[in-house]
Amino acid sequence: MQPQRIKKRAILGGTFDPIHCGHLGIAYAALEQAGLNQIIWVTDRHKRDPRQQSRVEFEHRQEMVSLAIAPEPAFCLGPASPEDPEAGYAIVTWQSLQQRYPNSQWYWIIGADAFSTLPKWYRASELVEACEWLVAPRSPSSPPVNYPEETPLLMEISPLNLQKGRPKLNSTLGTNPSHPLDHTALIKTEEICQQVAIAFKTRQIHLRWQILQSQTLPMASTLLRHHWCDWPKIRTWVPEPVQIYIQTHHLYQNPQHPLPPHSSSIPSL
User: Fold this and answer.
1) Where does the UniProt annotation place the signal sequence (predicted)?
2) The CATH number of domain 7-219 is 3.40.50.620
3) In the 3-class helix/strand/coil scheme, how is 52-68 assigned residue by residue?
4) Mean of pLDDT values over 113-138
5) pLDDT value at 168 more than 50
6) Does residue 227 surpass a pLDDT of 60?
7) How many angstroms separate the CA atoms of 72 and 77, rounded?
8) CB of 43 within 8 A of CB of 58?
9) How far is CA 132 from the centre of its chain?
10) The predicted structure's pLDDT at residue 162
11) How far apart are alpha carbons 27 and 11 in whole angstroms?
């Protein structure tokens, strides 16, 4: 009997409240750049982000992810996590998926700001050695916010305060300067990655990472939640099946930050 071929699988986790085209763009960039066979989307059951005033339940968020990723065969919805908050830790998620998919080479897709907190994650050393990290650049215009030190699956959290004069490490595969990335975002992301790599090097742990060659888009689930009612144009940030689901189930229907007429505070795409 021929041994099973090892497949390249990536985990993309988040609260997805709601999932939007920015998430999908990052996933497609990772799929192509790392030559992945499959991306497993893991919806965090427990919303730990202090900005999240939404009361959208896990089942709704999970269904929206399912609808958004359905057209892509390489995308897979991860299993629902148990209700125990401890089960939401990234290392526990990875161990569960490893048991389900034993013949796998593992990657973790993550935003640069969430990646900056990796040294503080629960059992981070084990997780770092198990995965290669695919880091998505974040828009330099993202507002700074303070967050808890440990947020296992969140994608939208603030970056570390970068220190100057530190030694630099190279990413595993480097970056592609020919791709039209936002230069400021790329530099910021590179600095974050170098800093995280140095933090683990002091623990004698080798961090494997590469920056995704994806555009930084002015999208955030926070804006979608806040302005779904009063700014119809923003609804184009989510795939059509998700738009229909949100309208059908009356999600995000209470405007929390109404915009004045002709406001320009929502960035145009």
Assistant:
1) none
2) yes
3) CCCCCCHHHHHHHHHHH
4) 95
5) no
6) yes
7) 11
8) yes
9) 15
10) 27
11) 10
35, 4 contact by CB (below 8 A): no
Cis peptide before 82 (omega within 30 of 0): no
Domain ranges of the chain: 7-219
Which amino acid makes up residue 262?
H
Q: Tokens for 6?
A: 């090892």
Averaged pLDDT, 189-212: 96
Beta-carbon contacts of residue 32 (< 8 Å; ≥ 6 apart)? none
Mean pLDDT of the chain: 79
pLDDT at 37 over 60: yes
Give yes or no for a contact between 153 and 88, defined as CB atoms under 8 angstroms apart. yes
Under 8 Å between Cβ of 96 and 77: no
Q: Among positive and negative, which fits the CA dihedral 150, 183, 216, 214? A: negative
- The residue assigned the tokens 């593992």 is 106
**Residue 204 predicted with pLDDT over 80:** yes
How many angstroms separate the CA atoms of 250 and 6, rounded? Answer: 43
Query: What are the residues facing 77 on neighbouring strands?
Result: 41
Around Cβ 203, how many Cβ atoms within 10 Å?
11
pTM check: above 0.85:
no
pLDDT of 236-250, one tens digit each? 999 999 999 999 999
Distance (Å, rounded) from C-alpha 19 to C-alpha 160? 25
